[in-house]
Amino acid sequence: MVILPAIDVLDGKVVRLTQGRRDQVTVYADEPVAAALRWKEQGAQWLHVVDLNGAFEGTYTNLGIAEQIIQRSGLNVELSGGIRSKDTLAKCLAAGAARVILGTKACEDPAFIQEAADRYGPKIAVAIDARAGQVVSRGWLSSTTLTPEQLVRSVLMLGVEWIICTDVSRDGTLQGPNTALLRQILELGPMHLIASGGIATVQDLVSLKALEPQGLAGTIVGKALYEGAIRLPEAIRAVESGSDTDARQAHHPVP
Fold first, then answer.
1. Of 9, 25, 169, 227, which sees the most CB atoms within 10 A?
2. Dihedral of the CA atoms 50, 39, 11, 20 (nearest 10)?
3. What is the pLDDT of residue 192?
4. Catalytic option among 129, 167, 171, 204
């Protein structure tokens, strides 16, 4: 299971939102590239980079920052936020993105998703952003009539292999992941699933690792890393071993 540190970019800064709300923003760093290099130094192999301006405004606007992160870090980077056209999708991949996440288009335009999956294969992922049992879109501002299960079934039939599942109500809250939702998603068919939302402790990560045989491939961690509740090097060691003992040592490292 891979740990993906989140770098959420809003107005050029690294931020975290609580439950996706723009009026609940905390700025953690002025330089997204510096944040990327910090996570690389601590052992990250993948980064989850979100253009929050793009998510809210509908047009990906921070591609220049994303490209700098990709080039200077040399890490695998997945990009998300406002990727709603063929041109934007192509530009993100041309910039070096290892994976591009489509959310709103998955809710509104199945033909777009099928064409993207046919053309780009495993470089395409679909975001399942859920609140109270319903999928939300357009920067989590719009409710849909879809349940997470309905959307997952749909995109799997279209050839999508990667799913990013976020419980919006837990995102940025440090309340722990919604493992019940993740289990429901994993039961729907073969996939690579990345969990997101609420990760607070190393033990949360070790618990999620138990879902690895069912298809859980990674976990996005944001606020817990930026506030020091999780230390990335120890977390990586804990999920590599998966033992409760290592998890306790990672949470309370021996000097």
1. 9
2. 50
3. 98
4. 129
The total number of structural domains in the chain stands at 1
Percent of the chain residues topping a pLDDT of 70: 93
The answer to whether residue 244 is catalytic is: no
How much is the pLDDT for 140? 63
Q: Is residue 110 within 8 Å of residue 148, measured between CB atoms?
A: no
Catalytic residue among 8, 51, 171, 204: 8
Count the neighbouring beta carbons within 10 Å of the beta carbon of residue 57. Answer: 14
Active site residue 129: yes
Tokens linked to 131:
């609140």
- Residue 103: the pLDDT is 93
* CATH at 70: 3.20.20.70
Low-confidence spans in the chain with pLDDT less than 70 = 139-142, 242-255
Residue ranges in 42-109 assigned as alpha helix (H) = 52-57, 63-73, 86-94, 104-108
Domain that holds residue 45: 2-251
